Fold:
Amino acid sequence: MKCKIDTIIFDLGGVLVDWKPEYLYRKVFNGNEKKVQWFLNNVCTSAWNAEQDGGRTIEEAEKIKIAEFPEHEDLIRLFYSEWHQMFSGPIEENVALFKALKASGNYKIYALTNWSAEKWDLGLELFPFFNYFDGVVVSGQEKMRKPYPEIYNLIFDKFAINPENAIFIDDNEENIIAAKTLKLHGIHCKSPQQLLKEIHSFKLIF
Structure:
């Protein structure tokens, strides 16, 4: 693949850290997967969480959801009060790749993440390597999120990125499809082995 890559943009959750609400609610429901999936598919849904990633406050989000499911108020509040329990930890192979690319000095390394503004500081505490990026765009802080083009254009403008010279890595295929429409090279991250293989296809030096 011939192109002059000078920039790598990483998503965080699902690429560098393993985040799943199931990790918390499996403890809450004592491993009853049926109850876990019902709750996450009907109450604290991914669509509801995405609105916080887009800038809605946690207070407002809880108010809306508790009004809808008052009988589950305690479980709803757990989503953000115990949010840290939704992480199993770093995805070590991918973090090693990130650090190797950064250490090479050959590329600018950025993060573009859908993440609640109110939980970003805690994310930095949990995963200090988030501080190693050359720059970060956090959706909740910007009040815009992937896969909408505005947030991609924001990171291009903010850090003077030419998308044709950049690779974007995300575990959400919808976000990769959106990136490619803006001339970004996209890698849909499915596993550390697949990600490394696709990175090597760009003939990067690190």
User: Anything to note?
Assistant: The mean pLDDT is 97. The first strand starts at residue 7 and ends at 10. The CA atoms of residues 120 and 138 lie 8 Å apart. The first helix runs from residue 21 to 28.
